[in-house]
Each structure stands twice: as C-alpha cells, then as structure tokens.
Amino acid sequence: MANLTGSSIVAPRPNAVAREVGDGVTVILDLDDGVYYKIDAVGTAVWTLLDIRPLTIEEITHAIVAEHEVETEDCRRDVLAFIDEMATAGLVEVGDGEPR
Amino acid sequence: VAFSSRELAVIEQTMSGHGEAGPPEAADGTGARVSRWPRAISTRRQLRRERPVQLAQPLTPAAKVRLATEIVRIYVPTRARIACNRLRLLEQVKGLPVAQAPSRSSQLSPGRKSAQAARLGSTVERTLDLLPTDSSCLTRSVVLARLLSRRGIESSLVIGVGSDGDSFIAHAWVEHRGIPLLDPGRDDLTRLVQLDVLNDHKHRWRT
Fold it and tell me: Is the pTM of this model over 0.90?
C-alpha cells in the first residue's frame, strides 16, 4: 500500500456499495468480486463521512475526535490502519492531497 | 413470494369479467330484476365478444426447449464468473446483449410484461433445479435479469443482507415493478443494493 499521510485524500470506490444494518455495523459489498465486508461502528462513522465527499486522513481524524473520546494521535493511527485495510481491499481509493 | 403467470391471468380475467355475474339486484336487496337489466345484457354481449385476456400465452414444447436452452447458455458463464470471484456485476449488465430492433416483449402492455416476467422467473427456477450443479441465488438472479433484459422487460436485481445469530447472511433476488420473481428470502433482510436494469438496456444502482 502506498504511504498514507495526513494529507492523503480518501474516497470510496464506485464498486463498493454499503448499507448500515443496525448496531452501527455496516456491510460493504464489492461489486467486482462479490466479497462482503463488515465494519464496526467507528468504521461506519468513517465510511459515512467518506460517503458525503472525499476527505483527507487529517479531516477524518478531526471529525472522529470531535465525536468520540479519543486522543488525536491514537485516532490518527487507527484511521490510517483502517484506510490502509480498506485500500488494500479495493474499497477506497487514495490520492495525494494538496496541503490545506 | 413470486406468483405464477396463471394467478395473474386469473386476476385479469376476474377484472374483465366484472359485471358478468347476472342482473343487478334491486337496491332493497330483494333481488328483483329492474329496468337496468337490458343494459346489463348489452354489457355481457360486449364482454363476450372480447375474449378473456391471455396475459401469458402457453408455450409450445419446442418453445419450452428453446427457453430452457437459453437459460442454460446464460447460466454456464455466469456461474463460472461468480465461482471465480469475478462477479463484476456492473460489467455483466453493461455487457447485456442489446437487440438490434425492439423485441416483441418490449412492446407488450405492463400486465403482459408482468405475466411474462413471472413465468420467466419460475422457468429459471425450474430449469436450474434440474441441473446437477448448484446455483446460488445470485447466479439465478443474474441469469433471470439477463433473460428479462434480452426481452426488453425491466427488472431489479436486489441484494439483501442480514444476520442469523453471529452469522452474516446475504441473499439475491429479482423484482419486476417491485414484485419478486424469485424467492426474496427472509422478511428481515436489509436491502443492500438494487440494480435496476431498464428496458432500454440502461441500468443504474440504488442503495
């Protein structure tokens, strides 16, 4: 996976369709290979943000910190790991962002 | 639950036959024949001239064989792609064969289209049940959606998800005008995605 930084821009790929199924759990179907993924409540929060518009890792982190009791550094690390997994699975695409 | 073309035909015949039951009863419920009777007779004659609508014409044995062959020819590559995790649903729909000229089915009335869609749904189920290989709900749904599209009949391929205890379950089926043509599974499934295959061979996703 390409190096992710705070300014990396993340957007869902068109082949990924998602639906929240209750208890904060979201199911994502990759239409390319027919594989289903399940993400938990925090993952759902990230996906919901991305569903509105592409965001940088930093923007995602700040949005999550504003809603949850978590240290910014811990949240950034988890968001990076989550986005890395999602990108490896082909559910999101990551681009180089312009510094904001 | 999918309903059969026969049931649809019965509904249509019942509607067409409305008013054929006999002379209208008097308003007081005595059943006395009243002066509206001659008008009722003329209505009956008119209805008799118009034969009950056959929404889905019976298939000849040769047509049944052709249809079953077509289903199997769609099924084989579809199953192979799904088995290899090369679902690529969007591509499959984009790659649907487009008739050079509008098919006869695309010019049918909505009622006849629904009847034909229902019959094709049950035919796909019966045909694939006969095969020694297994066919998942998704395979059946893709086969039926392609079959309908070839005939210019719009449909929606729906994928629903849910949980069974700790297990995750997913199910696919096809609808025509909101009516399931294949078994829609449990009531508590959440609709994950709906692929509308339009009768002009375009499509769109809805979530």
Answer: no
